[in-house]
Amino acid sequence: MMERLQKIISAAGITSRRASEEMILAGRVTVNGQVVTELGSKADPTKDLIALDGQPVKPAETFYYVLLHKPAGYVTSLKDPQGRQLVTELVKDVGERLFPVGRLDYNSEGLLLLTNDGAWANRLMHPRHQVDKEYHVRVRGKIDPQQIKKLADGVELEDGPTGATTVRLLKNDQSNDWLSVTIREGRNRQVRRMCAAVGLFVVRLRRIRYGNLTLGGLQPGEYRLLSKEEAQALDAPPPIKQREQRMAAPAKSSTTTQPPGPTKRPPRRKIIGQ
Asked: Which of 133, 96, 94, 118 is nearest to 215 (CA)?
């Protein structure tokens, strides 16, 4: 059956559909020895010889879903022209070629999903598939309540308006304050840009939750395999209710989630049980 090339590459567990499109445009994909650079081109994976960078594209036999505690100082990509460390280097023990679902910036840390299931990744990253993503954000200086209100009400970015589903003050420090910010979109550097739009400079950013998944006891550089049930639950979130933006009061010490301490050097490819 004829299928779009980007769908075939994604289904093979090589990368996401969006990244597959970039590979096609870059001339890295061939069909029966002929370079294909036009998006929308189709092939039959059962009959045609499809290759990426000269290597045959074959369907993945087993799908893996990984939750990684990304340390700062790693690139969320499969390649980096500057030669920096890649998040995929932390999950080599899985034994399959994985790719990140979405991204966390080089200096950001926290919960990052990786998989070789292109269809699953594509659904999670699609704009219609909005799921809560919670971040703990340390900002330079003191936060004014009006800044929290502006974040909750929505701000205008260069790529359009956006807002947080919830914003609350986590901790008042003498020099730097901590915020909890929950969003449902996945724009590039979104939380940092939202904070900048209201005059806040982000010193540290850590994603602590993706849907119903949390870091648990994972230390920076550690990961665990998701169960099939966890992956399916994330793939089928409950219907999205109308977004309710609100400004919450500072959390009490008895219920406050403590901001992270100093980042430890990540261990080498450690698996925390399934």
From this structure: 133
Round to whole Å and give the CA distance between 220 and 109: 8
pLDDT tens, position by position, 165-184: 899 998 877 788 999 999 98
Active-site positions? 105
**Cβ(187)–Cβ(162) under 8 Å?**
yes
| pLDDT tier for residue 239 given thresholds of 50, 70 and 90 | low
Per DSSP, the residues of 9-52 read HHHTTSS-HHHHHHHHHTT-EEETTEE---TT-EE-TTTS-EEE
Terminal CA-CA length for the chain: 36
- Rounded alpha-carbon distances, angstroms, from residue 116 to 109, 154, 212, 224: 21, 35, 21, 15
Residue 46 pLDDT level (bands cut at 50, 70, 90) = confident
- 75 and 173 Cβ atoms separated by less than 8 Å: no
Predicted local confidence at residue 208, as pLDDT:
97
pLDDT band, very low/low/confident/very high, at 204 (cuts 50, 70, 90): very high
Mean pLDDT of all residues in 258-264: 55
Question: What are all long-range contacts of 16-19, with beta carbons under 8 Å and residues at least 24 apart?
Answer: 16/99, 16/101, 16/118, 16/121, 16/122, 16/125, 17/118, 17/121, 17/122, 18/122, 18/125, 19/78, 19/99
Decide if 178 contacts 138 (C-beta within 8 A): yes
Domains and CATH numbers, the chain: 3-56 (3.10.290.10), 65-248 (3.30.2350.10)
